[in-house]
Amino acid sequence: MFITYTNPVYEYKKSPDQSATEIVHHPVIVVGAGPVGMGAALDLGQYGNDVLVLDDNNTVSVGSRAVCYSKRALEVLDRLGCAERMIEKGVTWNVGKIFFRDELVTQFDLLPEAGHKIPAFINLQQYYLEEYMVDRLNELDTVETRWKNKVSAVEQNDDIVNVTVDTPDGEYQLSCDWLIVADGANSDVRAMMGLESTGKVFKDRFLIADIVMKAGFPPERWFNFDPSYHRGQSTLLHRQSDDVWRLDFQLGWDKDPEEEKKPENVIPRVKAMMGDDVDFELEWASVYTFQCRRMERFRKGRVLFTGDAAHQVSPFGARGANSGLQDTDNLIWKLKLVMEQKAPLKLLDTYCDEREFAADENIMNSTRATDFITPKSAASKSFRDATLELSKRFEFARKLTNSGRLSDTAFLLDSTLNTPDENSFEGDMVPGAVMSDAPVSGQNGEQWLLDSLGNHFTCLIFVNSADDISLSQLEVLETLQQDKIKLVPLVVMTGQAKTTIDEIHTLLDTGGISKQRFDALSGTTYLVRPDQHVCARWRSLDADKVRQSMLRATANL
Amino acid sequence: MELNTDPNFFHPGIKMFRAYRAGDDFYEALIEMHRDLTDEDSQRVNARLILLLANQIGDLSVLQQAMDAARNDI
User: Fold this and answer.
1) Ramachandran region, residue A232 (left: φ > 0; alpha: ψ -120 to 50; beta: rest)
2) Mind listing the pLDDT tens digit for each residue in B13-71?
3) Does B42 contact chain A (CB < 8 Å)?
4) Which of A106, A304, A388, B9 has the smallest number of CB atoms closer than 10 Å to its CB?
5) Count of structural domains, chain B
6) Does residue B47 belong to the interface with chain A, where contact is any CB pair within 8 Å?
7) Contacts of A405 in chain B (CB under 8 A)
8) pTM, entire model
9) CATH of the domain at A257
10) Maximum CA pair distance of chain A?
């Protein structure tokens, strides 16, 4: 059925672990080689930690499935060394248009300002994303991926997790210190452990049709409320790579999913939407329902749940895979500090606190979008339609129109890892925010601020010129680098003078953008976590305060 | 005074980081107000709500502009 893509087959190979006389122990095992599981594995493997990935299948996603990848998820993937191919292959888009009864009522631009390396969104079939991640995993000696390895039992005590794995050669045993679960919305591991993900089921069905066509539509997201060709329902049109277009049709609850996905029923719907004379081939069709739900706690002892296994949202808003990649971004640096015994176990509980908060926000936003798109009462529908009618004329109604609040990052304002501000700042770079990107220049010419951070804590210091840093402050920076948890100073010069400081990584602000985004005065200092979240900031550099905030940010206080 | 048709929802004293958030908070509360009501009761609640909000606004010139905008194209 697939015209544009052939799924690769990753060979099952019998591992020596399967015939070992004693159970082989691994520090970390990841269950599931989807985007989230591979994100975890890459984050560990790329920085030298051994990790074993088990997947019950032997290929990437069958069908395009998750197609919208957000700026933040791509920034994480960029850190993991695989975003470039995705952006190159994917369709970059920033503009969404909303139609009501065939008339354009509003449009939005998701990245209205310049000065970011990564675009607001790309559309890319999930199989490409996964294929590129597998290729990246295979570059790393630290990561072993075992295909056709299905976890069939999990047991744990305070010290160890025991895992039973089923393969074409039968079952075998493994053990690990930590088990990262990324086996999707219907997580088998979650079920095996008797844990639940609870929430709300939406009584509606949507048909996805991927069609191949040459069409001159721009790369934009087109959402249609109550179009003439599909009365009383909604549709969505999105372009993917290879001239594949994603069409979504809201069907209502009473439709039979098996009937609806038959080509003879899909094709007339496509023709009604795209026009009779449009030349297309149907590549893939699927009918889905959805739920908004999450686990009560994302950690159970030595087992850590991530992505859809931990939380599930309705698809409007692209908050599924994108939030899963933010889970592992949040988790892995904490897990590494715990494994290195540089932070206490309770640091892992902050993974739960922070990502459960983010999951709640994602669930809230996607529930609201779903309620707007599929109103369930006469009153709700009349407000929805009134909003759309008024949006033709009034800006306030355009802003209320909700076709999905597309994936953005949570501001972790209440995180216990933050140090509360003692000075006042303008802008959004509050403790708990994901740090903004900005163009800068360094020794190798033009570059990006986010690319200049490593996989460690960064002490980001803005100064007008090198003269604004004293000898004693340089000594402070020197001592910070020798602390037990890696902290690297990074200086951004915001003035005109192109100077550098010996032994300190120095960048020049380009066009005042970073200065403005961080509300930087000379001396302004930010402490940034390995996952690029701001956790403290001051108007001047004070080593004792930085140290104290480092202790707090690693749950060592 | 001119009728304000720009986005104007806010939480007093709380900084919002997403432009859509306060409006969505309002919209959810509005739909929640109607939960489990019959259509007839929903209409009664809506009428009461309009009267309460109209009194809050008070300025008859603004109210007249809002009524004109609401009635337009019907």
Assistant:
1) left
2) 999 999 999 999 999 999 999 999 999 999 999 999 999 999 999 999 999 999 999 99
3) yes
4) B9
5) 1
6) no
7) 18, 20, 24
8) 0.96
9) 3.30.70.2450
10) 76
